[in-house]
Amino acid sequence: MRGFLIIGNNAVGKPFNLNDLPGNGRMDILCRFVAQSLFISHGIRRDVEVYLLLLGNPNDPKTIKISGRYVRGMRPDERSIGGLINKALRIRYTDGWVMSTPGIFVSRKDLSDLLKDICKEKKYNTIAYLREDGKDIRDFIKKEKNDILFITGDHLGLNDDNEKIVLNNTENIVAIPTLSLQADQCIVIINYELDLLEKNAI
C-alpha cells in the first residue's frame, strides 16, 4: 500500500468553478497531485490511496480520500479529477467517510483527525514528511520499502501548527535532494523509486 497526502492550505471545501482551478485555492495543484499519484499508462495504480486536505475554510476543513482500488470513471486530466472532487463536495458529509462516487470519499476531518484515523487503521508501516531539508528519500525507501504514507504541502508548504501535528506522528523527514520540485513531481519520483524496488525484488 502507498499513501499520498497533500495539504491544500487555501483549497476550497465547497463546489468550485472548473474553469478556474488555480483561482480556487490552487485546486489545480491538488488535481495534478492526484493524477501523478494514481495514473499509469492505460491504467490506475490499485495499491495507492490519495488524501486531499482542503483547508480553504479553516473552520470547516474537509478531506477527500481517493482509493485506487475502487475508483472508477476518472481520467488523468485536471478537469476530470476536479469534476469528481466537486461531486464529493456537494454531498452531505460527516465525521466519518461518505462515498460520493466509487472510490472517492469525503469527511469532515482536520489533519489531526485524519492522521489518527489512518494510524488506527494500520494500513501503513510508517509515515514520511516531505520537506526540502530532509534526509535522502532513496535511503529511506530502501529501508522501509513499502506501506508508507507520504505527506507534503502544496506550494505554501505546511504552516507551523500543521507541521507540529505531522511531527507528532513521525520523525521521518525526507527530501528529494535536487532542485526544489513541485508536489506532483515529487510523487512521480517516489513512485518510480518504489516501482524499481519492487521490480528488483522479483
UniProtKB/TrEMBL annotation:
Q: Where in the cell is it found?
A: Cytoplasm
Which ranges of the sequence are coiled-coil? none
**InterPro entries reported for this sequence:** Alpha/beta_knot_MTases, TrmY, tRNA_m1G_MTases_N
The reaction(s) annotated as catalysed by this protein in its Swiss-Prot or TrEMBL entry are: pseudouridine(54) in tRNA + S-adenosyl-L-methionine = N(1)-methylpseudouridine(54) in tRNA + S-adenosyl-L-homocysteine + H(+)
**Key words of the record:** Cytoplasm, Methyltransferase, S-adenosyl-L-methionine, Transferase, tRNA processing
What does the record list as GO biological process? tRNA methylation
Which superkingdom heads the taxonomic lineage of this protein's source?
Answer: Archaea
GO MF terms listed in the record are:
S-adenosylmethionine-dependent methyltransferase activity; tRNA methyltransferase activity
Q: Does the keyword Plastid apply?
A: no
One GO cellular component term: cytoplasm
| Top enzyme category | transferase
- Give the matching Pfam families: Methyltrn_RNA_2 (PF04013)
Membership in a protein family = Belongs to the methyltransferase superfamily. TrmY family.
Listed name of the protein: tRNA (pseudouridine(54)-N(1))-methyltransferase
